[in-house]
Amino acid sequence: MVATIILRALQLIFSGVVLGLSVYLAHNYGYGHAVAQLRYGAFCGALGLLVSFVGIAAAFLDVLQGMVMSVVDALAALLLLAGGIPPDFPTRVVLPSVDEGLAIPEAPGVTMPHGAS
């Protein structure tokens, strides 16, 4: 129980930092600087605060332990993980087509042996 409270207190501190930084950046950056991402960061910070408060309460209340806390933690894990994925993460890999081939460009001043192309 002591470890749970300590870890939830750390979650509370880090979530407060995320919330504070996100709100500060969203306030000072203005329009056109990924405001939606900063707002989602603020949402993640507030969600982390809420989950940490519920987790601390669950250490003392038997009603919140078990399935309720598992669902809350799973939902928080998914939403917080989504906040950590960069928005410009490549969603597909572009490979050269068969027609283009996989030719290696020659370096200047380097000659290829006879028969190699």
TrEMBL record:
InterPro entries: Marvel. Pfam families: MARVEL. Residues 4-85 form the MARVEL domain. The chain crosses the membrane at residues 6-26, 38-61, 67-85. Its main location: membrane. One of its GO terms (cellular component) is membrane. The keyword Transmembrane applies. It is a multi-pass membrane protein. Keywords: Membrane, Transmembrane, Transmembrane helix. It is found in: Membrane. This is MARVEL domain-containing protein. It comes from Coleophoma cylindrospora.
